[in-house]
Amino acid sequence: MDIKTKALLKSIWVFHTACSPCNNCDIEILDVLTPRYDVERFGIQLVGSIRHADVLLVSGIPNYKTAKRLEHIYKQAAQPCLVVAIGTCAIGGNFFRHSYNFVKPVDEIVPVAAYIPGCPPKPEAIIMGVVKLINSLKGK
Amino acid sequence: MKYLFYYLVFPGFLFTTVLGFLSSWLDRKITARVQWRKGPPLLQPIYDFIKLLGKETIIPIGAPRFLFLTLPLVGLASAVLVSTMNWIALFDTRSGFVGDWIVAIYLLAIPAIMLIINALASANPLSSVGASREIKLLLAYELPFVIACLVPVIKAHSIKLGEVIGFQASNGIVLFSVSGVIAFIIALLCTQAKLGLVPFDMAEAETEIMAGAYIEFSGCVLAIFKLTKFVMFVASPVFLVLLFMGNRINGVLDFLIVLLKYLLILVLLVLIRNTNPRLRIDQAVRFFWGLITLLAILAATLALLGY
């Protein structure tokens, strides 16, 4: 593993993209950042701009408005940028998959590196997903 | 050759950046402890910096390519230069030249100006908002900062940094006088604004204008701006140490005392940052041009009268 990947894994900056979620997943994401779980211990930080981000957290179902914007946001990110789909909605549409406004799942719009199921996923599940993502990048 | 060594290794670039990385870690650690968190590991700022260097650098369409890539380096160079000047004045009070106080004040303003130019060059509405706020903030805090920094100069009857320290070594530090205390508090608040720490971080305001002035920076450009910030984290508090509680560095002990004073100012800045909400830009301008400037003029008058 070269020094670039090593530093990347030690300092993951996340950008939070809400594709019309019900907000439960977003609250759980915030839980991971707050004192009880405190992922800043591992260098994970929430950033304000997509240009600074290493990981794009996507929650919610991409509908006709947000699907386009999700693609734009992914293209604006500085590479390497990984996408993590959080919640069952982002993975496959949950019970909105037959809804009139559902376009397609997140992984058909942008390449997804990790899926974290749950409605909403618990903070422990989100941390486990991130650990699995880091391990997969380490090549384990 | 000697000056090149001073500038690049000690007490210039290498020393200042290492100290800057450490103080940035301390800032994040204290913030975490205040919020009842555990905080990042010691090497976190270095990981962040290396990671940013390895990432893709995006130059926005419409941005002047050459300026966009070189201006951050100008800011970094001037921040390193002012830090070198401060430390050399602390090590050898006879060094320096008449008026290096003025040069130091100018150099301390350059990183902010480079940020403004680069933010305006990055062709993004939110970064223009951030840049315009940074301009207003710069105009607001520079005036009281200069007047407050004049107090030690008035007391020492010299505009050389080395002689200000020499005066304090023989007559007691400036902070132990009425005008010195007032001027120090003002200069501390202005440093808070200069470093863009929380009550005065309206130029980057993550939750409001999405990192504002920094929004379009990525990869190397962002890494250099972060590094400039770390260097400024050393340069401006050390400038305050030098002006208000300077002592000659003759041995290791004196060096540790200066570092301790620097840490004291740093912790004060971080605690102010953690206990205050962000001000609006108009509130900040009113604050600096009203009360703070009046107090600064009062301090300068008291200093002229000998208090």
**Beta-strand level of the residues of chain A, as a percent range?**
15-25%
Mass-distribution shape of chain B: globular
User: How many beta-strand segments of chain A?
Assistant: 5
- Biggest sheet architecture of chain A: 5 strands, parallel
Count of runs of 4 or more consecutive helical residues of chain B: 12
Content-based structural category of chain A: alpha/beta
Major sheet of chain B: none
CATH topology of chain A: Rossmann fold
Poorly predicted runs of 5 or more residues of chain A: none
Number of domains of chain A: 1
| Average residue pLDDT of chain B | 86
The strand count of chain B comes to 0
Quick one: CATH class of chain A? Alpha Beta
Order of helices and strands of chain A: HEHEEHEHHEH
**What class, by secondary structure content of chain B?**
mainly alpha
What is the overall number of helices of chain A?
A: 6
Report the helical percentage of chain A. 25-40%
N/C terminus separation of chain B: 44 Å
Please give the order of strands in the largest beta sheet of chain A.
Answer: 2-1-3-4-5
How far apart are the termini of chain A? 11 Å
Blueprint of the fold:
The complex is a heterodimer of chains A (140) and B (307).
Chain A: H1 3-10, E1 13-18, H2 24-33, E2 45-46, E3 55-59, H3 66-76, E4 82-86, H4 88-92, H5 106-109, E5 114-116, H6 123-138
Parallel strand pairs in A: 1-2, 1-3, 3-4, 4-5
Helix pairs in contact in A: 2-6
Chain B: H1 2-8, H2 13-34, H3 44-54, H4 65-91, H5 100-121, H6 125-156, H7 161-171, H8 178-194, H9 206-209, H10 219-245, H11 252-274, H12 281-305
